[in-house]
Automatic annotation (TrEMBL):
Protein name in the entry: CALU protein
Range of residues in the leader sequence: 1-19
Chief location bin: endoplasmic reticulum
Entries under Pfam families matching the protein: EF-hand_5
Domain EF-hand: 68-103
Recorded name of the encoding gene: Calu_1
Protein family per UniProt: Belongs to the CREC family.
Statement: the UniProt record of this protein carries the keyword Zinc: no
GO CC, one annotated term: Golgi apparatus
InterPro entries per the UniProt record, alphabetical: EF-hand-dom_pair, EF_Hand_1_Ca_BS, EF_hand_dom
Species annotation: Trogon melanurus
Amino acid sequence: MSARRLVLCLSLSVLCVAGKPTEKKDRVHHDAQLSDKVHDDAQSFDYDHDAFLGADEAKTFDQLTPEESKERLGKIVTKIDEDGDGFVTVAELKAWIKFAQKRWIYQDVERQWKGHDLDGDGRISWHEYQNATYGYVL
């Protein structure tokens, strides 16, 4: 009888270990948003505009005339077309969007650094950080 109990306990243990988990996990890696604007193509293409050009460059394009905008976009498309075949592939477009976003991030970090490095020595002390972030007096 103890052998039956042992087999039963082992069987239940195996079922518990091999059973389907009840907790659902999100296994998809979600990238950061490419813009802080709403992504709704039925309303506007502002999200795509920011993702394609980068936020700062998109603001510049908003100030241009349609002719100037078309000319500058033509120059950008030439840069995007890495293999020079006259066509922009999905891979080339993805690479360009990643480049534009990284450029914006690096520029933003540089602006933030300059804003916190109050004495301009290339380093940010704790007191500089406090003053720039919270307005503490040194």
